[in-house]
Amino acid sequence: MVDRVLRYHSFTVRVGYEPGIIRISNDIDLWHFFDHDITQKTAWLINAIQQDHESLYGAPLKIRSNSLAVEIWGHLYFEYYLLRFARFLGIHHQSQKLQCLLGRTAIIDCGEKNKDSNRFLWDCFALFSSILPYILPKNISLKDLKK
Question: Is the per-residue pLDDT at 6 higher than 90?
Answer without folding.
Answer: yes
